[in-house]
Amino acid sequence: MGAPLSSPTPLAHQGRPQPPRLRAVTAGPEPPAEATGAGERVPKLTAAKPGAPDVPRLDARAIGAVAVFAFEAVEGTRQIGQLGKWISSAVAEELAEVRQLNVERRSLYRDHRRIVPVVQRVRATHPSPSATEASVVLTTPSRSRAVALRFEVLRGRWQATSITVL
């Protein structure tokens, strides 16, 4: 009997190298074209850059949400596992260390308040097509906090490879 329908099955094309993707390019006011026999002009296609990811850029709303989730994880109000696919395993370990220290400090001071952050500002730069660096300012009723994030395309999706909650 075969595998159940809910289990993932390997695709036949996963082991084969993929051919380069083609995209139309324009140079100057008129796109370069090849003449066909019928007098039509067809744009030339060139190979896409090999380093360019096929995933769309991150928007500010997604970056802000990951920053809030990371802040809540460090404060102890959210489980680190809830960040799931958004963070790498190294980031999860770093957040767990900081979380442990914060939870211990809060238990010593018997501070059981839940801190609810609000995204004030998101600034993002794109040093390369497969990397995004962002800084997020979070405000709470008592103070403002900053979160620095670096996202990279890993295994076909954006993942945070560095998160620092200040």
* Secondary structure tally: strands: 8
What's the number of helices? 2
Unreliable stretches (pLDDT < 50, length at least 5) are 1-13, 42-48
- Mean pLDDT metric: 77
SSE order: EEEEHHEEEE
User: What portion of residues is helical?
Assistant: 10-25%
Report how far apart the termini are.
54 Å
Q: What's the CATH topology label of the domain at 60-165?
A: Nuclear Transport Factor 2, Chain: A
Largest sheet: 4 strands, antiparallel
Class inferred from helices and paired strands? alpha+beta
Strand content: 25-35%
In CATH, what is the class of the domain at 60-165? Answer: Alpha Beta
CATH architecture field of the domain at 60-165: Roll
What is the radius of gyration?
Answer: 23 Å
Shape: globular
Q: Taking strands numbered 1, 2, ... along the chain, how are they ordered across the largest sheet?
A: 5-6-7-8
